[in-house]
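Shipment paperwork, digital attachment
Item: protein structure file
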Amino acid sequence: MRTITMRNGLLKIKVTAAERISMRLAQGFIVLLMAAGWSSNVAYAQSIWDRVKQTVKQAEQQSRPQQQPNNQQRPNQPRNDGRQQGDDRGHATSGSIKPPAGTKVQETVLAPLASGARFFVSPHGVHVATLETSGSRAVVYYDGVPGPKFDEIIVDQGSSSGAVDVAFSPDGKRYAYCGRMGDQMLVMVDGKEWLRTSDTNMGRFNGSSCVLGFTSNSEHVFLTSDVATSMSRGDRYTKFIFDGKAAPNSASGIRGSGDVASIRNVAFSPDGNHYAVIIQDPVDDNKWSLVIDGKVAPYLGGAPQWTADSQHVYTVLHTSASGRGQVAEAKLDGKPFMRADEIKLHVAPAGTMVVAEVFAASNTPRPLKFMVVDGKKIPGTEIVNQGGANFDQITFSPDGKHYAARFTNTDNRHYAFVDGKRGQDYQTVDHIVFTADSSKVTYTAFTNGKPYVVIGDQESEACLAEPSPPVLDTHGAVTVAPAGSRAGTICGLTGGGPTVFVDGKTLPIPASGVSGTDLRFTPDGQHYAYTAGFQGGGRRLVLDGEAQMESNLGAANVTSHYVFSPDSQHIAVYSAPPKDTGQYASGLFLDGKYVLSSEPTSFFFRLEFTADSKHIAWAQSVPGRQGFRIFVDGKAVADGDAVLASTSTEAWWDMAPDGSLSVLAKDDNNLKRITIVPSPETNVSSMVGGGATVARRDH
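Attachment content:
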């Protein structure tokens, strides 16, 4: 017979000898399962999300009179605005750190610090290129290794050309820059000479002489360079160079003002291995050619676009036709497949679908426009292109099998048109985007004085959608889950209390909630969270619609972004203690529990799970200096002085796919990269007293 007693609020269970034997057998069975290939983190059948729900219920039962965080709990509020709060004595100093056993911390000197030096950080990996001097010569250091000496490094002096001093590849592993040596410009790629030229821009080399970039796969380098021998039209042109080879007949008309992305008439294939560019004769605009992968195409065509598989090129050619004036001809690899007064092509990001905006009878009093999909005219898309009537915002689903567009009728009312079917009329329709699995289209709408959100065939109650979320770009006011068919938004200013519209249902913000923001879904799309303001000015984290009473995110005007682990099994956010202790303290709300920081009086910034989801890392300020301390799984592992602001868009912090973390720091003499490989002896679960993750099998 089992005996259950309660002492000091804790349940105690007495079991019989037979039950103890059964429990040992069960433990042995779990050990056998783990030896057979089950992960050590998966010995719990209960998911973390179920456990969080149980914690919520327990917290509600224990603290019903104090459910709402009080804005008067100033000593407990987490700070992330760059200032200190509370008594800092005896905490978070820059003394020596002893990381947990098994932690690997490596410091790599990237460049000496010098007065006036400029540095550029790669988008990944925390690689640094530094512009410095060696005597009277200019030198670029890359990860601490000096390059050749130049008379000058060619930099952008505020021109509108969009030149960058040092260009990095998208994966952060490659770099390029230009230097002048005498009357020549050298282009350096990965520390080696890539190109040498004497072509100048009116006798000098400047930012427009060196506009460098890498293709999307980081494998190829391209350069546009303005060349001019005089101000005469025929003496000014722009060269386009790909992998060191100039496109034939390089001439004017390649680049407009702005950055590298504004290069016009150049199209790169999605896989990054091919290009197509329009080359004009600098003397005669009527003489031009289409160049594909370094060869002049045997046909003419403008506005090149690559197919999703990077194998074919769509173009549109404008020519004169007898009795019709100028007409447009759409081609695929030079073969015409459509002719009209005007054609604008939209190519799907996957598959083979292409949508065409076709203008017919554009020179008549009643110009006509309609839509053609994969060569077929779509019934119901014909509009008289007058009085504002039009269609735009053509959008494709991620799998390339569906399309949507916004139509405007002559009354200036909107409707969504999806796969040949017309939706309801509204005064306005906006932010059209498909869900990740391509099954639903979502958009915002407004009519009869009220705003709405539409997800698939479900229209919300009156819902003024939350502005574009501050962390993730979701193409508008509707948050689309990274995977699956889910989407939703926070609804506010609708004449009633704030609500959440998700899964076709309008749900209230938890009791006493007065606002909500920052709605996001887990990477697998199975769960969602947001932060909610409560009466009194404080905030809580809300997970799957349930307020997490153990979280306390401080004042409603202080942003504390929560984070999900890549495997969708964990959630964390900076938090003050759930109840006022009378002293300033800060910590972490992790998987349903509040964990006090070991150095609770310095503010937090930059919170992230490692790529393998096994560890969590963050940075805290170091009082008395512009420094930071890195923590992994709650243990201090490294110190450094800040080089960039914690809010910098440059990648001073980078989580690598192998689970390591790299940060940019400095000491009195050098810039350095600190690389941290977490200890296998600690993990996320150890911070909350033994993890509870979704059971799964590692194959």
